[in-house]
Design brief:
Elements: H1 21-31, H2 39-51, E1 56-60, H3 63-73, E2 81-85, H4 90-98, E3 102-106, H5 120-123, E4 128-131, H6 143-153, E5 156-160, E6 168-171, E7 179-182, E8 189-193, E9 206-210, H7 213-223, H8 246-257, H9 259-277, E10 283-285, E11 292-293, E12 299-303, H10 311-320, E13 326-327, H11 336-339, H12 350-358, E14 359-362, H13 370-384
Parallel strand pairs: 2-3, 2-4, 4-5, 5-8
Antiparallel strand pairs: 1-9, 6-7, 6-11, 8-9, 10-12, 12-14, 13-14
Helix pairs in contact: 1-8, 2-8, 3-4, 9-13
The structure holds pyridoxal-5'-phosphate (PLP).
Length: 385
Amino acid sequence: RHRRKGTILIPVCEPRVDGRELEYVTDCVRTGWISSAGPYIKRFEASWAAYCGRRTGVAVSNGTVALEAAVRCLGLQPGDEVVLPTFTIISCALAVLRGGATPVLVDADPDTWCMDVDKVEAALTPRTRAIMPVHIYGHPVDMDPLVALAHEHDLFIIEDAAEAHGGQYLGGWRSGSGTWQTCGSFGDASCFSFYANKIISTGEGGMVLTDDPTLSDRLASLRNLYFEPGRRFYHSELGSNFRLTNLQAAIGLAQLETAEERLEHKRWLGKAYQERLSRVSGLSVQTIRPWARPVYWMFGIVVDEHVGKTAATVSDYLASEGVMTRPFFTGMHEQPALQRMGLFQDGRYPVAERLARQGLYLPSGPTLTETQLEQVCDAVTSALG
Ligand SMILES: *Cc1c(COP(=O)(O)O)cnc(C)c1O
């Protein structure tokens, strides 16, 4: 199968780097502040924490280590359990394992694709110490039941908001009068990635937000090899080098200045895809709950099983039409590296398995134009016809 002649590829996501990034990076180079020392780190940390309504941010080198740092700094013991969705990126499970604890999975909600919050209580045991919700593809998790469980059972919440920069959840919606709360404001530790395809990017980068000064001190120490303050090259804990550079923070700060435009484009893209694709039979899209203000990090579709095609088949066809896509996550319970450890052997996760087989996401980047979006929708329509 070959691509139609002259078709220009529509990428899944190209970064937009057209604000003051160059000016700020030039400033780093001119002044010589190119390492993890330098003024942009603190400015980016403070700005992002403020944007999400948190006291402190600790910038790290990527989102994967943001999660790892969060788990390690909560001081879990071997045998302690962390409940997380199976339908997520492996960074979440890795963080739990690197923190010395055991991951326990719950299946996905068939409509929002986030963790099925009704299944979390049944996954709790006397060893559960934390819940790790992940706002999948920019749609917030229904947080209220998790917050309630965390209070009741004295659990930490480690929030993975890597895909939901600027997303909002209507906390207290069940009472009929909620308050909109920003994704990243729910965790004892809330983790972000600033990878190049994330809504705000530093190329590679991440951050942990918290309101707890003890935790933020620990995170900052862990990030920097646990150097003892006031006694250099002396270490009472095992740390890591998870430092972000001033250059990267400079890019992040410039991107944050354009956050509103970025989110505006995402909302346009989400609405436009939703309108056009809801007329196409044979697929479903992420259900937007009335209590959610999603940010459409990536716009996914799930091919109906009765169509007789998998996501892989549809993806190949779309590629031949010049439309790039990516498959959905493969659940953690289906990962050979984790299965070999004897994990998740008794669980049943049919929703995540269907999403993995039938789901893919479409071009959703900040440079996507209306013409491209229409081409994508036409190609999807003919793929399912
Ligand atoms: C991108 C992402 C991460 C990992 O971030 P990196 O910066 O790529 O390490 C973690 N969790 C989720 C949900 C992500 O989408």
